[in-house]
Amino acid sequence: MAKTRSVQQIAADIKALKIQGARRIAKSALEGLMLAAKASRAKNKAGFHSDLLAAARLLEATRPTEPMMRNALEQTLRFSMAWIHANPARDVAALRAALAKREALLLSDMEKSADTIAKIGAAEIPDNASILIHCHSTTLMRLLIRAHKMGKHLRVTCLETRPLYQGRLSARELSAAGIKTTLAVDSACGSLINQIDLVLVGADAITSEGDLINKVGTSTLAQLAHLHSVRFLCAAETWKFDPLTRLGRAEPIEQRAWEEVWGSGLYGQEKGKKVKKPAKLSVLNPAFDRTPARLISAYITEEGLVPPAQLGIIAQSKLSLSR
Ligand code: RUB
Q1: Distance 164 CA to ligand 1 centre (A)
Q2: Which residue in 92, 16, 109 sits closest to 52, CA to CA?
């Protein structure tokens, strides 16, 4: 984890993708909230809660397509409100201590979920499977490394994941774990798919219809998998469910800076030179895309293998009852 010591630094690191991936983002955001709790100079609980609220809003604004972060922050804010009502005689220090305990609980819940997903997912991988993955998902990394440690022989192809090459993080991690790993450019997916037994991806958000929002390029893989009758699984904890989509809200797709795509002219004929983007040229850089539920064979969750249509029901009850 980055050496950050204030909520502002954590927010800046999340925005700049120094901290990436839904799980890491959610965990770091919780850390940021706790740093804000520590730093608050508020003399009373209402003032303290306002400081927490401001910190949560700052963190949430860093990446709009991250319900796991929003759910974790909202849960903590709700806990703070409920605690204030239930403990009128107790002071800010007691609330701060209660929040620290709550954070530890949330983090251990996330940790347990990731472990359970790895266990359930590893069992779904056939021996000698050829697997195609996209981007860098900590959930997927655990699952694949677990299957490998169980003695399954895997061949994993990682797509590079333009523009920021998170696929290389996956390739490095899997190959260091001793898994037979290959790296390929994103646009090779069509020519690779007929050698693939299983497509595996992570998730940033899951909607009430069971649609998946994940790194841009995921929906192309799902369509290819469907066309070639290849199983398409997504490993995601129920924390990724966005409860606001039940109210008709469309999951926002983060648009990132054009510089990430155009870069400094390091590619193609202009190799090594800084080339200015033509003033009238528009560059599109959506960070994520939406994969319809009908293209997803199943979600691998901490509650088991879940069909897309059921995900919202299970996630909603977990989010409102047990946390
Ligand atoms: C990362 C990404 C990952 C999910 C899941 O995108 O799309 O697949 O976040 O990750 P970015 P995890 O690099 O833009 O954050 O399983 O670790 O939650």
Answers
A1: 12
A2: 92
Contact 87, 107 (CB under 8 A): no
Task: State whether the beta carbon of 22 lies less than 6 angstroms from ligand 1.
Answer: yes
pLDDT in the model for residue 272: 64
- Residue 265's pLDDT band, with cuts at 50, 70 and 90, is low
**Annotated catalytic residue within 13, 109, 189, 204:** 204
Query: Active site includes 109?
Result: no
* Structural domain containing residue 87: 7-114
Residue that finishes a domain, picked among 92, 114, 136: 114
Asked if residues 96 and 38 have their Cβ atoms less than 8 Å apart, the reply is: yes
- Which helix (H) or strand (E) element contains residue 206? strand 205-206
Q: Does residue 297's CB lie within 6 angstroms of at least one atom of ligand 1? A: no
Query: Which of 114, 143, 159 lies at the terminal end of a domain, its last residue?
Result: 114
Q: State mean pLDDT over 59-79.
A: 96
219-246 pLDDT per residue, tens: 999 999 999 999 999 999 999 999 999 9
Residues 101 and 129 both lie in one domain: no
Q: How far is the CA of 122 from the centre of ligand 1 (A)?
A: 19
Report whether residue 202 contacts ligand 1, using a CB cutoff of 6 Å. yes
